[in-house]
UniProtKB/TrEMBL annotation:
Superkingdom to which the source organism belongs: Bacteria
Name listed for the protein in its UniProt record: Putative NAD(P)H nitroreductase
Gene3D superfamilies on file: NADH Oxidase
Extent of the signal sequence: none
EC number in record: 1.-.-.-
Record has NAD as a keyword: yes
Keywords: Flavoprotein, FMN, NAD, NADP, Oxidoreductase
Limits of the Nitroreductase domain: 12-170
Cofactor binding: number and manner: Binds 1 FMN per subunit.
UniProt keyword annotation of Nucleotide-binding present: no
Amino acid sequence: MTPAAEALNRIIRTRRSIFPPDYTGEEIPVSVVETILANANYAPTHRLTEPWRFTVFRGEGKTRLADFLGDTYQAQTLPELFSEAKWKGTREKVTRSSCVIAICMELHPEKVPEWEELAAVACAVQNMWLTATALNVGAYWSTPGNLALFSEFLGLGPNEKCVGLFYMGYHQLPERTPVRKPIEEKVKWVTE
């Protein structure tokens, strides 16, 4: 096996979700974020629609995002069900992250079905995640329940939608291979 294949296998097999409580607080340089986003741009895309769109929240932008998430949680929750701990936790996920990226997609219904655009965006996010893993940047993709409200907050057009948030931060956790059932349980071979 070539060194490149070995490195790729290790990165793929050690990629995992790393959450904001495990972030160190060290800022991710803009150049690193740009590298992660540049690799997203090389995802496969049917009919070359390149549907992925990203909004990066850093610095005071994170405060705006945290306020939006906290305010919408409070507005959508009945007073008797409101949890101060959940409100605080929603905000802290953002503020503990070095940056948060809104994952959006631009739809091209005249060219491809929406599921293909979403699949392309998911591939772009996987490229981001693998690049982050290689750079020791922790990350995870979250899909908050208030995604429908993100269109106005992000200023999205009629053919755009937000499909989640990608939280990122440096961490010091040891490398760990995720647990998976054997691939043999998930593959059928047809040889005749």
